[in-house]
Amino acid sequence: MIGKISGRLDYRGADHVLIDVRGVGYMVYVSDRTMAALPGPGEAVSLYTDLLVREDLLQLFGFPSLVEKEWHRLLMSVQGIGAKASMSILGTLGADGVSRAIALGDWNAVKAAPGVGPKTGQRVVLELKDKAPSVMAMGGTLPAAMGDEPAEVIEGEAKAPPKPAAPAPSASAQAEALSALGNLGYAPGEAAGAVAEAAGNDPSADTSALIRAALKLLAPKG
């Protein structure tokens, strides 16, 4: 299994890139959002990858973070969601957007992805809502693909090391806030929903601000 590829970007296609790794070219399919964030041809690039194996097909899909790769894996487990639909959802919302949409039960956000209808959006939220807290918690502890921490790496020939990809502003804060609310006795699902809503209202909020905002959202209405 190829878990991560680091090398030199050879060219960009409509939905894929070719990464040169010591003279071997790997075709990696990426979302529109990931494509827009990649460097130009000839520059160093690093992506976490997931290998799709079928009887007549092998395809590599690339992601800037392990959180996004995990969402791809979970999305693919939902009936009616294949690789194309998963990449469409991630390309439209990004990993943080998917986390928020599923934690909040916002299937309208999911169905906004091209090729995803209302019924499929509802199914995604219903089947994955209980898994949102654990994936959100990953955000504060995992490196981006262009960080220094190794995974299953195929080293490329690029002379200059790639610059670390900037993490989402509130990924770590969300994970810490989620943990704090869990310690206060809140159920994972309701804590994830409150943290997601608070982060959506103020993406730059730090941990303390997220906790305060989430507690207000969780307070009994009376």
UniProtKB/TrEMBL annotation:
GO terms for biological process: DNA recombination; DNA repair. Residues 1-62 form the DNA helicase Holliday junction RuvA type domain. Residues 1-64 are annotated as: Domain I. Keywords: ATP-binding, Cytoplasm, DNA damage, DNA recombination, DNA repair, DNA-binding, Helicase, Hydrolase, Nucleotide-binding. One of its GO terms (molecular function) is four-way junction DNA binding. Residues 173-219 form the Holliday junction DNA helicase RuvA C-terminal domain. It holds the Pfam family RuvA_N. Homotetramer. Forms an RuvA(8)-RuvB(12)-Holliday junction (HJ) complex. HJ DNA is sandwiched between 2 RuvA tetramers; dsDNA enters through RuvA and exits via RuvB. An RuvB hexamer assembles on each DNA strand where it exits the tetramer. Each RuvB hexamer is contacted by two RuvA subunits (via domain III) on 2 adjacent RuvB subunits; this complex drives branch migration. In the full resolvosome a probable DNA-RuvA(4)-RuvB(12)-RuvC(2) complex forms which resolves the HJ. The RuvA-RuvB-RuvC complex processes Holliday junction (HJ) DNA during genetic recombination and DNA repair, while the RuvA-RuvB complex plays an important role in the rescue of blocked DNA replication forks via replication fork reversal (RFR). RuvA specifically binds to HJ cruciform DNA, conferring on it an open structure. The RuvB hexamer acts as an ATP-dependent pump, pulling dsDNA into and through the RuvAB complex. HJ branch migration allows RuvC to scan DNA until it finds its consensus sequence, where it cleaves and resolves the cruciform DNA. Belongs to the RuvA family. NCBIfam families: ruvA. Has three domains with a flexible linker between the domains II and III and assumes an 'L' shape. Domain III is highly mobile and contacts RuvB. This is Holliday junction branch migration complex subunit RuvA. It comes from Actibacterium lipolyticum. The lineage of its organism: Bacteria, Pseudomonadati, Pseudomonadota, Alphaproteobacteria, Rhodobacterales.
